[in-house]
Please model this.
Amino acid sequence: MKLDDAAAHLEALGNPTRLKIFRALVRAGDNGLSVGKLQTRLDIAASTLSHHLKTLLVVGLITQERQSTTLICRASYDLMRGLVDFLVDECCVESTGTLCVTKSAC
Amino acid sequence: MKLDDAAAHLEALGNPTRLKIFRALVRAGDNGLSVGKLQTRLDIAASTLSHHLKTLLVVGLITQERQSTTLICRASYDLMRGLVDFLVDECCVESTGTLCVTKSAC
DNA sequence: CTCTTATTTCGATACTATTAGAAATACCGT
DNA sequence: ACGGTATTTCTAATAGTATCGAAATAAGAG
Model:
């Protein structure tokens, strides 16, 4: 993953409202949640929700699937995993210490 | 970790310049890097760097230690690990599918 | 075709972030 | 104390973001 992409993903998750949305979708798993259900659960204005969903969508953190009138949203697990990997990647490679003998230590 | 804290950390990392800074420190490991060394490496204005370092500092993503005139910065590995854990935490708990039988699958 | 439900776009407002040059401060070595 | 190096604060211009109500669009149901 490129740094600018990672930054874009982190920025997208860096807003409390969007993080709430994303986590609700992460919790929901492969069932996903409709926009309407998200709105009811999180109790935010529909326009605000739509705005944030678009932000998450354009960076790829979520996907959407139409089921007639309702729109099902799902977290993109691949991208989330890639982001987590990016954060710990190259950890301590310049260190002379023993902090990162194994990657799990970071 | 509370959601608002996690969002603050993600937001701090969500700026390309700050992410560059943070990654340089993550690479550096427990040796850390001085502000001046960071400035030379990343080639950004000293005032801009100082500003971003403060942002990372107040959310706790980095720590600083004075060594006479120079200021050594280090990534806070604990916080980074906490953030990564937060992201995958509660993954798929509401799912009826088989996506997350083990946590590693997320 | 019209009604209803679901979601998005528009428009406006208020707030916050990014950047960097210039000036200020901190601290050590001599 | 002086000079030099390291870092921060001040100031300001510019641009971007968050929010929500109102209106608009989309799509199935009757």
